[in-house]
Design a protein that fits this description.
Number of helices: 11
CATH topology of the largest domain: Beta-Lactamase
Radius of gyration: 22 Å
Helix content: 40-55%
Strand order of the largest sheet: 5-4-3-8-7-6
Number of domains: 2
CATH class of the largest domain: Alpha Beta
Order of helices and strands: HHHEEHEEEHHHEEEHHHH
CATH architecture of the largest domain: 2-Layer Sandwich
Oligomer: single chain
């Protein structure tokens, strides 16, 4: 028929080529940490429209992200999550254990390691403080990222575009009366965290608990995990009391970062 429209279905070979190209793009972005559509098209040997379609599909699935519309593509949360599932709970956790013990001994307070899961912070390792009155072990506990020092340290390592994606609403849930409850407040605090290099929490996630945290980042500056010290707020006294622990927490984070950067670790 003259007006008949013929649909040509994708063959298994076509689908296999698309999957292979998508996987290759993920590998390229992981290696380069930034990739433009034009570069992707040239490296794959495909049209720009094809490269854009593949990159857009990976972005929709959170494997890639963009800092701004039409910007370069970078590793997204889903890609980080796959890597973290493979290494963070094993290697980073193992590397962090003696450092957390040292941090606990220096401060006599509870030290922890946590990772970011969406808008939540999950504690994956902890060493309880040495005082009779102390913050208990937090291993396995999940907290709102925006309402905890360790969560805010992790969020601050993300670009604003990713923060907006994870927090599409203006209002945020409160864990305690002291919690941040708007995205505007959160963005202001994350700016402060980036400027000073650590995050603070004064009874925002738990009544009677204050904390300070520093993020561990990957080669592109994205969050891998974070280290924190939690103190009963009655003993800290005020924010200055918890802020005084910043050098200890920053030193602990740097010790872990140094081992993560070492060829011995990366070759495992």
């Amino acid at each position: 028929m003259a007006n008949e429209v013929q649909e040509v279905a994708a063959t298994p070979s076509d689908r296999l080529t698309s999957v292979d190209n998508a996987l290759w793009l993920l590998q390229l972005v992981a290696e380069r940490q930034a990739l433009r559509v034009s570069e992707a098209a040239e490296l794959l040997g495909v049209a720009r429209s094809t490269a854009h379609r593949l990159l857009s599909a990976l972005r929709r699935r959170d494997f890639l992200m963009q800092d701004k519309p039409n910007g370069v593509y970078r590793p997204g949360p889903a890609l980080h999550a796959i890597g973290m599932a493979a290494i963070s709970r094993i290697d980073i956790r193992r590397i962090a254990e003696p450092v957390l013990e040292q941090l606990r001994d220096q401060t006599r307070e509870t030290s922890s390691l946590a990772i970011l899961e969406g808008t939540m912070a999950r504690f994956i390792e902890c060493r309880e403080g040495l005082s009779d009155i102390r913050v208990g072990s937090r291993t396995g506990i999940v907290r709102f990222a925006h309402a905890s020092a360790i969560g805010k340290a992790l969020l601050a390592a993300l670009p604003d575009a990713e923060i907006n994606r994870r927090y599409p609403d203006k209002e945020l849930p409160a864990a305690t009366p002291a919690s941040i409850t708007t995205k505007h407040q959160l963005m202001l605090e994350l700016t402060q965290v980036r400027r000073q290099g650590y995050a603070l929490n004064w009874e925002e996630s738990s009544d009677g608990v204050a904390a300070i945290a520093v993020a561990l980042v990957d080669a592109a500056g994205g969050p891998l995990a974070a280290v924190s010290v939690a103190v009963p707020s009655m003993r800290a006294g005020n924010l200055a009391g918890i802020r005084a622990l910043a050098p200890d927490v920053q030193q602990a984070a740097e010790l872990i970062q140094e081992q993560l950067r070492s060829p011995t670790w990366s070759g495992r």
